[in-house]
Amino acid sequence: MHCIAWSSEFPSSTELILWRVSCVAMIVIPGMVTMMLGFGLIGDASERYFGWLIILASIIVGLLILCAWLYIAGRIATLVIALTTLRSLPPAAFTNVDWTTFFPHI
Hints:
- The protein is an all-alpha fold.
- 63% of the residues lie in helices and 0% in strands.
- It has one domain (11-87).
- The protein has helices at 13-44, 50-84.
- The two termini are 35 Å apart.
């Protein structure tokens, strides 16, 4: 949903880059978490590789914690950027719309 504004105008190039990075993070991180949890469940079925499973589980837990913080930061960044871009709207945002030409009245 947030990627709809991918090619929109932003007040600065920094906000544009931050918006795009946040949108990509909000798409990629849930998929990564799902894959990591899936690999963790597959790994639990095997008893032969118990030593490797402990290492794999600690890596997965570390990545999940990191991903959670990145996801939260991405969400906060998109909210802040969405509200701060209201300070410099394009001139077309201030034109009056004649809604009666779009929706017929009875």
